[in-house]
C-alpha cells in the first residue's frame, strides 16, 4: 500500500505531519483539506479519477460495451461499440469433399464467426482406374484383369482372351511358349504376356577323332554332333612309357591319350622309335694350381659317367688398380679347345690398398660455437671433415652497460687408431654490452582505480615506474536483485616493447526495487520491477473486496454446483473453467470433481478451448454416432491429430483417461496451436519415472517442465486415472502458461 484516499472535502486530518507516511500519495477533491495538507507538508496530491476499463467486445450480430470504474472513488460510466456485421471470405471452403460416387459441397465462411453463405454443390468425381493387375492360372489357360480405383479402391475384375505362340527348342537353344491375355475396359485394350521356357534337346555325338601335337606330349579329341554338326574339342590326359635309353643304346616310346566323356572312356596310342643318345658334355670344371699359374679343364658326360680333361693356357692381368683406401684385383684367364670348341675360365687375386697421406688441417669457424677441421689426402685428393669440440672462456665479463671479451678454442683428433693426432685453433671475440633485461612488471592499483607499473632489471636490479593507461567495461549492470560488476584494465608498454596488462574487478551496489502492478481479469495481477525487469504473477490479496496492491475489485462468481465447496483445493480452478465455458456440470446439478474423466469429455473440453469451430460431423469411429455431445468434438480432435483413436479403429468415448494420456493429448494440442513446446523436465527425480509409457515420455517431460503436472504425493503416477478436479487445474495452468 502506497497511497490514501480522502473522500470528505472538509475532513480534518489530525496528527500533523506524521499522520500520513511521507512516501504515501494523497487522493482527494480540489480545494479540500486533503490538498491543503499535501501542500503544507510537501506531499504528492492527485485529484483526477483513475478509471479501470472492462470491455465486452462487439461480435458480428451483437454490439459491444466498455465500462469504466474509478478505482479511487467508484465513479462509473459506459460507452457502446457498434455491431461488426459478417465479413465473408472471398475464398471458398470445402465443407464436404466429393467422392467417386457422392456429391460434396462448398461455401464462403465469415472470418470472425464462421457463418456460411453461397452454399454450392460439388459434383461426384467418378472412379479413376489405373493399369490392371493380371492374375494367371497355374497352367496359363485362364487369366483375369483386376482394375482398382486409385481414389476409393473400388475393384472390377474381367476375363481375358488367351492366344498362344510357340518357338521350338534346338540342341543348345531354349525354346519358348508365349501366352498373351487381352481384355477391353472402358473402351481401352489391355494386354499381358506370360512366357514359358522349353528346355534344349542336347547334342548327339559319335566316335571321336584324336589330334596329336608334333612332339606327342599333348593330344586333343574332337566330338561332332550328328544333328547340328557342332564340334566339341577337349584336352586328353597323355601318359608316356619311356624305355631306358643310354648314350650307346636306343628304344621305343609309347604315348597313350585318354579322355572320359559322357561316362565313356576313349583312348588312342602313338609309338616313336628313339636312337642312342651319344655322349653329351656340359660346361667344364676348371681346376687351378695354388699359385694360379696352371689350370686343367675337366669335361663330364651329363647322361653317362664318361669323363675327359684338357690342359689350359693361363694369362694374367691387373683388372682393378688399388687406391688409398680400396684394394685392387688381378684376374687370371685359363683357355682350352675340346671337340672343336673353345672354353675359358677365370680366377682372381686381391691387391692390398696403398692408404691415405693427410697433412695439417684447415679450420673453418661457423659463428663462435661451431668449428670444423678439413683434411686433404696428397695422393688422391680425398677430403675428410671433422667436427671440433669448441670451448669458450670469458676473459672480460660484459655488464648491462659495458662490453666484454671471449676466447674460443677448437680441438679435434684425426688419423688411424694407432696414428691419431690432436689439432687445435683459437678465435677471440669482443662481446657487446648486455643491456637491461626488464621482466614482468608489478602493477599497483589505487583506491580511485588508477594504476602504476614498476619494471626491474633482472641483472643489475635498476627499476623504472610509469603510469598505466586504464580503461573500464561494465560486465554486469546492477539490478534490484544482484550487484553489478565493472572490470578495469591497465595497459603498460614495457622497456622491451611488449604490452603488459592487469585487471581489477569492482562490484557496484544493488539498486532499490520499484514495482508497478497491472490487474488481470482472472484474480491475479502482474508485478514488474522497473529497475531490474523482474516479472511475476501474484494472486490478488483482497481487503474489503479490493486488492491492496493493484486496486482491482474482487470478482465473485456463484457456482451452480452442489458438490464444489468454497475453499476446496480445486475451487478456484472450477470457477475458471466454468467462467470460461470450458467445463460444465451434470444434469443433477453436480460438477463431479472426484469422477474419472472420459475420452469423450476431454475431446469436448479441447474443442471448447479452441472456440467450438463450426465443423460437420464425420462418421470416423464406429462407436461415435451423430447427435452425442462428443460427436463433433471427436471429429475435430481426429482431424487436428490431437486424439487419434485406438488401433482397433474405435474412439472409446466412455473410457477413463490416465494421467499420461491426458498429458499426451495436451502436448499434441499445444503442438497443433504452434506453441513453444521445447521446455522439458528431467523425470528421473520421480521414483516411478520408469513406469511412463514410451509413447507419452516426451509429453510427460513437457507437462512437468511447464508446470501442468507437479506430481501425485511425490510420484508421477502415469497410469493413474485423471479426475475432473485435477483436469480443471491442469486446464487452468495450461491457459495461463500460453
Short description:
Helix content is 10%, strand content 39%. It contains seven helices and 44 strands. A hairpin with a 2-residue loop joins strand 26 (328-338) and strand 27.
Overview of this structure, please?
The protein is mainly β and 738 residues long. Helices cover 10% and strands 39% of the residues. The protein is built from 7 helices and 44 strands. It has a 3-stranded parallel sheet with strand order 1-2-3. It has a 3-stranded antiparallel sheet with strand order 4-5-6, with no helix packed on it. A hairpin with a 6-residue loop joins strand 35 and strand 36 (463-467). Helix 2 packs across helix 7 (724-737). The longest helix is centred in the last third of the chain and has 15 residues, at 659-673. It is flat, with a radius of gyration of 58 Å. The protein starts with a strand and ends with a helix.
Oligomeric state of this protein? single chain
Residue windows where pLDDT falls under 50 for at least 5 positions: none
Fraction of residues in helices?
A: 10-25%
Average predicted local confidence, pLDDT: 87
Outline type:
flat
Count the strands?
A: 44
Radius of gyration: 58 Å
How is the topology of this model organized?
Blueprint (H helix, E strand, L loop, with lengths): L2 E3 L19 E3 L5 H9 L3 E2 L4 E6 L7 E7 L5 E6 L11 E4 L7 E6 L6 E7 L10 E4 L6 E6 L6 E5 L1 E7 L7 E11 L2 E11 L10 E4 L6 E6 L6 E5 L1 E5 L9 E11 L2 E11 L10 E4 L6 E6 L6 E5 L1 E8 L7 E11 L2 E11 L10 E5 L3 E7 L6 E5 L1 E8 L7 E11 L6 E11 L10 E4 L5 E6 L6 E5 L1 E8 L7 E10 L5 E10 L6 E5 L4 E6 L5 E5 L2 E2 L2 E2 L23 H9 L19 H11 L21 H10 L18 H15 L23 H9 L18 H14 L1
Parallel strand pairs: 1-2, 2-3
Antiparallel strand pairs: 4-5, 5-6, 7-8, 8-9, 10-11, 11-12, 13-14, 14-15, 16-17, 17-18, 19-20, 20-21, 22-23, 23-24, 25-26, 26-27, 28-29, 29-30, 31-32, 32-33, 34-35, 35-36, 37-38, 38-39, 40-41, 41-42, 43-44
Amino acid at each position: 500500500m502506497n497511497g490514501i484516499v480522502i473522500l470528505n472535502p472538509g475532513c480534518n486530518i489530525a496528527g500533523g505531519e506524521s499522520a500520513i507516511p511521507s512516501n504515501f500519495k494523497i487522493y482527494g477533491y480540489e480545494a479540500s483539506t486533503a490538498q491543503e495538507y499535501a501542500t503544507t507538508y510537501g506531499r504528492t496530491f492527485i485529484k483526477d479519477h483513475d478509471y479501470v476499463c472492462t470491455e465486452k467486445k462487439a461480435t458480428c450480430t451483437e454490439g459491444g460495451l466498455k465500462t469504466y470504474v474509478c478505482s479511487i472513488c467508484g465513479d462509473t460510466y459506459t460507452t457502446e461499440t457498434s455491431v461488426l456485421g459478417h465479413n465473408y471470405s472471398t475464398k471458398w471452403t470445402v465443407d464436404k469433399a466429393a467422392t467417386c460416387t457422392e456429391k460434396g459441397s462448398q461455401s464462403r465462411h465469415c472470418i470472425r464467426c464462421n457463418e456460411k453463405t453461397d452454399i454450392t454443390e460439388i459434383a461426384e468425381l467418378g472412379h479413376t482406374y489405373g493399369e490392371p493387375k493380371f492374375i494367371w492360372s497355374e497352367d496359363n489357360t485362364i487369366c483375369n484383369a483386376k482394375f482398382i480405383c486409385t481414389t476409393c479402391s473400388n475393384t472390377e475384375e474381367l476375363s481375358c482372351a488367351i492366344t498362344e505362340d510357340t518357338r521350338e527348342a534346338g540342341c543348345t537353344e531354349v525354346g519358348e511358349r508365349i501366352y498373351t491375355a487381352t481384355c477391353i475396359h472402358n473402351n481401352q485394350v489391355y494386354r499381358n504376356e506370360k512366357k514359358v521356357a522349353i528346355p534344349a534337346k542336347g547334342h548327339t555325338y559319335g566316335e571321336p577323332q584324336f589330334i596329336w601335337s608334333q612332339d606327342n606330349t599333348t593330344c586333343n579329341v574332337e566330338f561332332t554332333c550328328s544333328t547340328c554338326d557342332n564340334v566339341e574339342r577337349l584336352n586328353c590326359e597323355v601318359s608316356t612309357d619311356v624305355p631306358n635309353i643310354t648314350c650307346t643304346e636306343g628304344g621305343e616310346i609309347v604315348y597313350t591319350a585318354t579322355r572320359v566323356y559322357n561316362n565313356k572312356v576313349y583312348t588312342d596310342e602313338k609309338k616313336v622309335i628313339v636312337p642312342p643318345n651319344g655322349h653329351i658334355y656340359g660346361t667344364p670344371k676348371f681346376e687351378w694350381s695354388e699359385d694360379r699359374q696352371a689350370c686343367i679343364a675337366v669335361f663330364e658326360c651329363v647322361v653317362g659317367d664318361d669323363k675327359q680333361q684338357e690342359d689350359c693356357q693361363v694369362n694374367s692381368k691387373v683388372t682393378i688398380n688399388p687406391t688409398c683406401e680400396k684394394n685392387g684385383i688381378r684376374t687370371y684367364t685359363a683357355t682350352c679347345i675340346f671337340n672343336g670348341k673353345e672354353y675359358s675360365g677365370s680366377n682372381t687375386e686381391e691387391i692390398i690398398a696403398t692408404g691415405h697421406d693427410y697433412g695439417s688441417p684447415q679450420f673453418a669457424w661457423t659463428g663462435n660455437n661451431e668449428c670444423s677441421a678439413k683434411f686433404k689426402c696428397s695422393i688422391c685428393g680425398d677430403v675428410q671433415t671433422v667436427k671440433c669440440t669448441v670451448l669458450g672462456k670469458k676473459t672480460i665479463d660484459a655488464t648491462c652497460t659495458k662490453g666484454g671479451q671471449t676466447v674460443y678454442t677448437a680441438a679435434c683428433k684425426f688419423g688411424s687408431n694407432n696414428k691419431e693426432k690432436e689439432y687445435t685453433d683459437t678465435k677471440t671475440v669482443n662481446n657487446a654490452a648486455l643491456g637491461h633485461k626488464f621482466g614482468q612488471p608489478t602493477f599497483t592499483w589505487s583506491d580511485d582505480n588508477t594504476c602504476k607499473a614498476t619494471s626491474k632489471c633482472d641483472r643489475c636490479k635498476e627499476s623504472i615506474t610509469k603510469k598505466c593507461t586504464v580503461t573500464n567495461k561494465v560486465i554486469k549492470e546492477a539490478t534490484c536483485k544482484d550487484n553489478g560488476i565493472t572490470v578495469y584494465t591497465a595497459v603498460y608498454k614495457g622497456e622491451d616493447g611488449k604490452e603488459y596488462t592487469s585487471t581489477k574487478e569492482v562490484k557496484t551496489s544493488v539498486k532499490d526495487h520499484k514495482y508497478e502492478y497491472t490487474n488481470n481479469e482472472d484474480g491475479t495481477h502482474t508485478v514488474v520491477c522497473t529497475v531490474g525487469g523482474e516479472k511475476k504473477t501474484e494472486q490478488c490479496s483482497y481487503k474489503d473486496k479490493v486488492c491492496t496492491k493493484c486496486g482491482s475489485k474482487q470478482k465473485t462468481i456463484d457456482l451452480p454446483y452442489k458438490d464444489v465447496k468454497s475453499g476446496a483445493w480445486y475451487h478456484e480452478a472450477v470457477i475458471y473453467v466454468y467462467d470460461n465455458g470450458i467445463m460444465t456440470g451434470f444434469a443433477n446439478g453436480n460438477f463431479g470433481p472426484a469422477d474419472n474423466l472420459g475420452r469423450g469429455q476431454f475431446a469436448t473440453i479441447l474443442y471448447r478451448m479452441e472456440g467450438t469451430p463450426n465443423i460437420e460431423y464425420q462418421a470416423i469411429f464406429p462407436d461415435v454416432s451423430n447427435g452425442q455431445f462428443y460427436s463433433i468434438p471427436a471429429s475435430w480432435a481426429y482431424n487436428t491429430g490431437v486424439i487419434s483413436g485406438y488401433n482397433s479403429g474405435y474412439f472409446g468415448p466412455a473410457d477413463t483417461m490416465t494421467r499420461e494420456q491426458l498429458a499426451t493429448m495436451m502436448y499434441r494440442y499445444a503442438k497443433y496451436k504452434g506453441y513453444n513446446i521445447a521446455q522439458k523436465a528431467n523425470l528421473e527425480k520421480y521414483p516411478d519415472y520408469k513406469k511412463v509409457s514410451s509413447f507419452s515420455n516426451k509429453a510427460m517431460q513437457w507437462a512437468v517442465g511447464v508446470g501442468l503436472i507437479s506430481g501425485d504425493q511425490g510420484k508421477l503416477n502415469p497410469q493413474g486415472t485423471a479426475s475432473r478436479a485435477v483436469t480443471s487445474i491442469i486446464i487452468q495452468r495450461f491457459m495461463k502458461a500460453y
